[in-house]
């Protein structure tokens, strides 16, 4: 497996590979996201209790699901970077973190917007909300640590250690928060125990989950390419690739 | 030249760190005074009624403990980093994680243990009902090692950054949340008269797990910072 993987440790190979994938992933993301959101927001039937406000789940659920899995992806790339000392994994960490943080924030914001008319409050100290908020803090911590170092290589290593500590903590935080909530208030918000959804709502939801996943992948690929270029700016292959543009940029 | 045993290395680092701190006694006293100040601010802010104070006492004491652990985090590695001691430690033939564990123990001796000793006074000041005192002490004994271990990870990560204070609290406070929840849960249980030991045991388990894993994370972080 190592021999198969080894060429992909070279920045220019990854750069070109991502460049080849990016248009396809981006197009697929646009297609599925468009289809899922239009179906969900326009054509899916309104909920018999919540009316049209439930439609925010077509944004809320996908972002909430991705926020957690992207943190795990972050920790895995940190582990890979730590164990095999791959620069590429460090840059993947830098590419994933902002996307994950943004998705976490979107899920919190959409949840609050939905919560105001439904629960009558912007914020409730519910287990899920709280652990999502803590996840956002963890993301912010990783980002802040990464940018605090003037040397990106050290920043990525430090942020990677923090990400791994965080990922060990996530299950502990999750269960402790759930337990804390049930201790104090009993089961409060049974909203999350949804009855099985009707297919006319479930399918657009699944499509938008796929769409958001592809969108996140496209954004991460793009950020990764930028990161590679930024780090390898002085290397010959970048000069070959962008010789003309670089010369023009230097002249102006 | 014979090589010292691991235990000798561990105890030497501990003794040396303790001696460095003892040369500047105010460093030992200040975090304790800080805790007492924070604790005595609360009755002034929320009113001296025993019903309110008793309810928030655990939370106040634990939040004060978190803040004082952060306050004392600078002295864990900063001076050693600046004068090159930390670099020497990474060159030692002994595992760096072992030496990091020694530093964690010293941090606990200087911030965790005094807090345990101080806790009855704080509980008295905050009018915590006496049936919860033992539980509060138990949570502090079980929980403060986690505080020292995780603080050490954060301090090692940020030691090369010059001024890391605000960044450090940003990194660490989310990781302290389970600790806060279990500790206040245990005291709450003791207050209402149900069994508090499940939470205390959970806290002890967490504490042992953290103490087992944290030295490796601290060692990795020191290598990044010294590099």
UniProtKB/TrEMBL annotation, chain A:
**Compartments (UniProt record):** Cell inner membrane; Membrane
Pfam families found in the cross-reference section:
Cytochrom_C_asm
Q: Biological process GO terms, please? A: cytochrome complex assembly
Domain of life, per UniProt, equals Bacteria
Q: Where are the transmembrane segments?
A: 21-44, 56-80, 92-115, 127-146, 158-177, 197-221
Q: What are the record's GO terms for cellular component?
A: plasma membrane
Main subcellular location: membrane
Please report the stretch or stretches of sequence annotated as the Cytochrome c assembly protein domain. 18-184
Question: Entry's InterPro entries?
Answer: Cyt_c_assembly, Cyt_c_biogenesis_CcmC, Cyt_c_biogenesis_CcsA/CcmC
Q: Which UniProt keywords apply?
A: Cell inner membrane, Cell membrane, Cytochrome c-type biogenesis, Membrane, Transmembrane, Transmembrane helix, Transport
Any one Gene Ontology MF annotation carried by this entry is: heme transmembrane transporter activity
Membrane-topology annotation of the record:
Multi-pass membrane protein
The UniProt function text for this chain reads: Required for the export of heme to the periplasm for the biogenesis of c-type cytochromes.
| Classification via PANTHER family | CYTOCHROME B_B6 PROTEIN-RELATED, HEME EXPORTER PROTEIN C
The UniProt entry's sequence similarity note says: Belongs to the CcmC/CycZ/HelC family.
Name of the protein in question: Heme exporter protein C
- Organism whose genome encodes this protein: Pseudidiomarina halophila
Gene encoding this polypeptide? ccmC
Automatic annotation (TrEMBL), chain B:
| Pfam families, sorted | CcmB
Q: Does this UniProt record's set of keywords contain Iron?
A: no
What membrane topology does the UniProt entry give? Multi-pass membrane protein
Question: Mind listing the GO biological process terms from this record?
Answer: cytochrome c biosynthetic process; cytochrome complex assembly
What are the record's GO terms for cellular component?
Answer: plasma membrane
Q: Where are the transmembrane segments?
A: 28-46, 52-72, 104-126, 132-159, 166-187, 199-222
Q: Which UniProt keywords apply?
A: Cell inner membrane, Cell membrane, Cytochrome c-type biogenesis, Membrane, Transmembrane, Transmembrane helix, Transport
Q: Name one GO molecular function term.
A: heme transmembrane transporter activity
Q: Kindly report the protein's main subcellular placement as a broad class.
A: membrane
Subcellular localization is given as: Cell inner membrane
Kindly give the InterPro entries that the UniProt entry links to this protein. Answer: Cyt_c_biogenesis_CcmB, Cyt_c_CcmB_bac
Per the entry, what this protein does is: Required for the export of heme to the periplasm for the biogenesis of c-type cytochromes.
Family designation: Belongs to the CcmB/CycW/HelB family.
Q: What is this protein called?
A: Heme exporter protein B
Q: What is the lineage of its organism?
A: Bacteria, Pseudomonadati, Pseudomonadota, Gammaproteobacteria, Alteromonadales
